[in-house]
């Protein structure tokens, strides 16, 4: 079901009534030019907020029907949606929620990452994080032991993903930091011994040839 349309006319009627009440309280007789000045001031002050609200509503509506699009068109639609609300925390939350309802988890995840970049609405960040990735880690030592077991069983990719999430929850934990450094060392490319030996032999041979050439001269 699509969200209900925004009743802009009703909102403006309410604002007009509020302005008239202010004039009555001040004992000022409204003049025709005052309405134009008030409208301009209103648009200047609240215009950006109105545009953000309308953009957020439009972005949420664009999520509808994404599941029926081909993969390439769906990816293009997702980029367009995110561009509309990239710097708007409320819009990002709305898009993430709508995407989760429509089972578009990739779009919801991208909206969540953009929300984290804004640094705004931390409670909503936590809520979306749990909806996307499950309950957050509660104890650093429990996470470290679980990651060790995953590494022992050979599930390295899953262990790295769980470690990244655990470190985001406990960035100062020494045991998790040590695990991160260990995995980083293991992932670093190791020098090939045969290649090193061959390179050393070539270097020795080159030095010998150079010495022979010099002695012959």
Mean pLDDT: 78
Ends apart, CA distance between termini: 92 Å
The outline comes out as elongated
- The overall number of domains is 2
Q: What is the total tally of β strands? A: 0
The biggest beta sheet is recorded as:
none
SS strand fraction = under 5%
Poorly predicted tracts of residues: 1-9
Radius of gyration: 31 Å
- DSSP helix count? 10
Instruction: State the helical fraction.
Output: over 70%
SSE string: HHHHHHHHHH
Give the helix/strand class.
mainly alpha
Q: Keywords, please?
A:
217 residues; 10 helices; mainly alpha; 2 domains; disordered N terminus
What does this structure look like?
This protein is an all-alpha fold and 217 residues long. The protein has two domains: 9-133, no CATH class; 140-187, no CATH class. The protein has ten helices and no strands. The protein has helices spanning 8-26, 32-63, 71-85, 89-101, 105-118, 122-133, 140-152, 156-169, 174-187, 193-216. α4 (89-101) packs antiparallel against α5 (105-118) and α5 packs antiparallel against α6 (122-133). The longest helix has 32 residues, at 32-63.
């Amino acid at each position: 079901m699509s969200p209900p349309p925004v009743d802009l006319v009703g909102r403006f009627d309410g604002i007009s009534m509020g302005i008239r009440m202010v004039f009555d309280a001040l004992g000022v007789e409204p003049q025709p030019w005052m309405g134009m000045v008030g409208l301009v001031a209103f648009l200047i002050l609240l215009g950006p907020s109105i545009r953000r609200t309308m953009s957020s509503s439009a972005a949420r509506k664009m999520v509808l029907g994404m599941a029926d699009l081909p993969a390439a068109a769906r990816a293009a639609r997702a980029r367009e949606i995110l561009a509309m609300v990239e710097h708007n925390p409320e819009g990002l939350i709305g898009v993430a929620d709508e995407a989760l309802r429509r089972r578009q988890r990739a779009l919801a995840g991208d909206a969540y990452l953009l929300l984290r970049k804004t640094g705004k609405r931390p409670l909503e960040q936590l809520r979306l994080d749990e909806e996307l990735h499950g309950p957050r880690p509660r104890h650093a030592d429990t996470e470290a032991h679980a990651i060790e077991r995953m590494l022992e069983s050979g599930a390295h990719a899953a262990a790295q993903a769980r470690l990244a999430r655990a470190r985001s929850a406990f960035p100062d934990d020494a045991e998790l930091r040590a695990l991160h450094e260990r995995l980083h060392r293991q992932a670093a490319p190791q020098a090939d011994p045969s290649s090193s030996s061959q390179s050393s032999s070539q270097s020795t041979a080159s030095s010998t040839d150079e010495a022979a050439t010099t002695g012959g001269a």
